[in-house]
Amino acid sequence: MVHGRRMKLFSARTAGLLYLIVLAFGLASEAALRTRIFVPDDAAATAANAAEAQWLLRAVLAANLTYLAGEVVMTAILYLLFRRVSEPVSLLAAALRLVSLAVFTANLSNLLAARTDPTNALRHLEAHQHGYAAGLVIFGLNCLAMGHLLRHSGRTALGVLLGVAGVGYLVNSYLFTLVPGYGGEATPVLLAPALIAETWFCVVLLRARSPRL
After folding, report:
1. Per-domain residue ranges for the chain?
2. CA dihedral of residues 89, 71, 105, 62 (deg, nearest 10)
3. What does 77-117 look like in DSSP terms, one character per residue?
4. How far is the C-alpha of 49 from the C-alpha of 117, rounded, in Å?
5. CA distance 93 to 18
6. What's the pLDDT tens digit per position in 23-68?
7. CA-to-CA distance for 88 and 166, rounded, in angstroms?
8. Cα gap 75→83, rounded to integer Å
9. Is the dihedral of CA 203, 206, 208, 212 positive or negative?
10. So where does this one cross the membrane (predicted)?
11. Rounded to whole angstroms, what are the CA distances from 51 to 30, 40, 102?
């Protein structure tokens, strides 16, 4: 019994550490692309930035590979931790997250193309942006499923906020898909709940004091 409790606490904290890596590397990668390389509607400036910052594109690719690998392990741990709440929903959440990770991984081909073909970097990075939005549709559904699990495990406020975050991901991704010329103007507002909820979830995992989180 004691050994099992310790293993669950260790698993929760490991998931929290991996979540921290995912958040840090994911946010840093996107910030680097948006502030140092990608210039909306300016192919010449984006091409020049991509040609001059090859090291940064390599670093962004490495950071993405690192956090994607960590997220696969984290997904498995979260499934094991929350299956006691609901086996079907926990399995659904894990499956949705893994599908979104597959989309994100495939989407790295656009970053690689921007590095190897800097002349057309704007086109490649715009494709990456839309590919990322497609992955976030699936991830938004994962947030809804995880929100359900958290609410039913006693973390009601966090579960509700993560559900709101899922809706924000869905709305923002469909805006990219359906609204011509949408450049993410509403993204800061729509994804603010996600930043808060995911950071909160990470802290809950890192500070786990019981198997019930």
Report:
1. 2-206
2. 170
3. HHHHHHTTT-HHHHHHHHHHHHHHHHHHHHHHHHHHHHHH-
4. 12
5. 17
6. 999 999 988 887 889 998 899 999 999 999 999 999 999 999 999 9
7. 19
8. 12
9. positive
10. 55-82, 89-112, 132-150, 157-177, 189-208
11. 18, 16, 28
Torsion from C-alpha of 196, 201, 203, 208, nearest 10 degrees: 160
Q: Which of 114, 14, 11, 10 is nearest to 64 (CA)?
A: 114
Compute CA distances 103 → 14, 35, 98, 114, 133, whole Å.
24, 24, 9, 18, 10
The closest of 140, 151, 137, 118 to 47, measured between CA atoms, is 118
Tell me which amino acid residue 196 is.
Answer: I
Query: Does residue 183 sit in helix, strand or coil?
Result: coil
Tokens (6 digits) for 127: 């494709």
Average per-residue pLDDT in the chain? 93
Place of tokens 């079907």: 88
pLDDT digits (tens, 9 = 90+) for 100-109: 999 999 999 9
CB 135, CB 107: distance < 8 Å: yes
Name the residue among 9, 18, 60 with its Cα closest to residue 37: 60
Residue whose structure tokens are 């990322």:
132
